[in-house]
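Researcher: Please predict.
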Amino acid sequence: MLFVWLREREEQAFWAPGRTLPWVSPEQPSYTGSDDRLAALRAGRPVDVCAGDLPAWAREGETTHWWGRATVTAAGVVVFYHDDGSRWLADNGL
């Protein structure tokens, strides 16, 4: 269910101006899509995302600090971990 949710959001971002979905609410903040994530989701490969980009129902009580990351598989397995900064830099084009 989470993997499908991520793929649908990524597909919506693909067609949005600037590939960014607008802020709707604290539960649905703005989101900028990624060609690499979209390709992985379409192929059913695991994706790595900021934990804060997951919907609240999927975070399992995890905090949403900038260093919080999650790997999500097509089978619905979510593995949370702390980023050393490299993924955040890559996500932000730095």
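Model: The chain has one domain: 2-91.
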